[in-house]
Amino acid sequence: MSVEGFWKVAVSTPFGVRRTELELFSKDGVLQGISRGEKETLTLNDLTLEGNRLSWYQSIKKPMRMDLAFDVTIDGDEMTGTAKGGPMPAAKVSGHREPAAQPA
What we know:
Helix content: under 10%
Structural class: mainly beta
Region (Disordered): 78-104
Distance between the termini: 28 Å
Number of domains: 1
Shape: globular
Largest sheet: 9 strands, antiparallel
CATH class: Alpha Beta
């Protein structure tokens, strides 16, 4: 199953919905990713795909420092799951893969 592409993602936190765009891609046969959020751009760490389950860690600095652990399930072009950071309760994560850009 390929999870590569651009994903629009929403994380429902106690402080409101945070939106980010994930770029998932393979480089030298290894799945990698970048998160471009409202306040910062981050590398996804320990990105692991097992079947349709995708997990990773990312360390945010804004609005506060926190390590977040994501655990999502991919169903076609849809993503659902959770993000857990520190003592905070798990936040719901939902996302949708954007269609590939068509050549002009």
